[in-house]
Amino acid sequence: MSTPADPTSASPYGTLPPTSTPALRKPISLPRLIEMRARGEKITMLTAYDATFAAVADAAGVECILVGDSLGMVCQGLASTVGVSLQDMCYHVQSVERGLRRSQATAWLIGDMPFGTYHESREQALRSAAALMQAGAHMVKLEGGGWTADTVQFLVERGIPVCAHLGLTPQTVHALGGYRVQGKSVAAAATLTRQAIALQDAGATLLVLEMVPAALAAEVTLALQHCATIGIGAGKDTAGQVLVMHDMLGVNLGKMPRFVRNFMSGAAGVREAMQAYVAAVKDGSFPDNAQHAW
């Protein structure tokens, strides 16, 4: 009589620890993400906008699902994220949450706060964040530094976890002059670092760094003690990585960003492509800093 296989003896993710397999891992929590950062395990994040793709991403081992306002561009066909409403975001957060719940998923769910929904006052930000949390989000994400630190503290003090976002902030793309790399000058790098520390001190526990030089992203990551950096076009030395799902599957209405890798190439299906993304982030083979030589 053969001996049953040990379910922890192998992983479909190559060198990943068995605890990263969705069937074996516990639900992702904020303390768990901070523990991952502390022990140097890379955090994986992908965007998703509907129930099915969210469940597939979770089954592939993705720790964080971001319902990004990027849905305005990839789902609605808008030229930027500025036209996305809070109602749009709540609808898609609800859809993703249903998919995760039906599949008994374990991922941490983050909802973007869209343009104009947290700029007026802290009270407006609280109402917007509460709507996203009631729709099913575990955490909200907002863009910008400086003035946003006060808003972050106000939300965190009221029990709402916050992911901040610095560097290229798509909601202010018109003010930035387009989709350009940020933090290239000494002064700009110093400002970004100062803002990152202020956001951490205000209570942000995740920080997306988008399209900043890899060296600067590495410096900011080291400067933060209680906040995990998540890079996108920011090199390999952040605490984790995020990509727009459509980009990493090779589906894009416009020009593919140079820092993106098409994980569908050579994959048998979407889940396998997402598993390859998880494995590449975990083992450090993605991203390649040569692609981020801004």
Protein model, in words:
With 294 residues, the protein is of the alpha/beta class. Helix content is 38%, strand content 13%. The chain has helices spanning 30-39, 51-59, 71-74, 86-102, 122-135, 148-156, 173-176, 186-202, 214-223, 245-248, 270-283, and strands at residues 43-47, 64-67, 108-112, 139-141, 162-167, 206-210, 228-232, 240-243. An 8-stranded parallel β-barrel has the order 1-2-3-4-5-6-7-8, surrounded by 8 helices. β1 (43-47), α2 and β2 (64-67) form a beta-alpha-beta unit. Residues 1-23 have low confidence and may be disordered.
Distance between the termini: 60 Å
Oligomer: single chain
Weakly predicted, low-confidence segments: 1-23
Q: How are helices and strands ordered from N to C?
A: HEHEHHEHEHEHHEHEEHH
Q: Helical amount among residues, as a percent range?
A: 25-40%
Q: What is the number of helical segments per DSSP (H or I, 4+ residues)?
A: 11
Radius of gyration: 18 Å
How would you state the average pLDDT, rounded?
Answer: 91
Number of strands: 8
